[in-house]
Amino acid sequence: MRRIYLLLAVLVVLLGLFHTGSTPRFFAELNSRALWFAGGGLLLVLTGVLNLLNRAYGGIARGVRWTAISTNLVMTAFAALAGTLGAASGVELAAIVGLMAATTLVSMLPQARA
Q1: What is the DSSP annotation of 35-54?
Q2: What does the pLDDT profile of the chain (114 residues) look like in tens digits?
Q3: Domain with 7 in it
């Protein structure tokens, strides 16, 4: 389970890096929409890093555990809303929300943490 959690957390980080890095592809100029798009990617990176911290220290640090779980729940809902309101295709929406939901579920399992 720890390996699955590691994989999910790294995928969230990579998704965030891809999201942020693809900002120039979708926005010809730096404006508030482009900044918010890039910020969404940064938020994904930080969520993934928080999950890596939870995996390493969540067993002994309750604050890290509950912060990671809460963040994952909020990010899953946010991803669903942003994807629905944004330009995400059905496949993209399912993949991203699925990744976040899976990360949320695994983050709650004691055997996923050290």
Answers
A1: HHHHHHHHHHHHHHHHHHHH
A2: 999 999 999 999 999 999 999 999 999 999 999 999 999 999 999 999 999 999 999 999 999 999 999 999 999 999 999 999 988 899 999 999 999 999 999 999 999 998
A3: 2-112
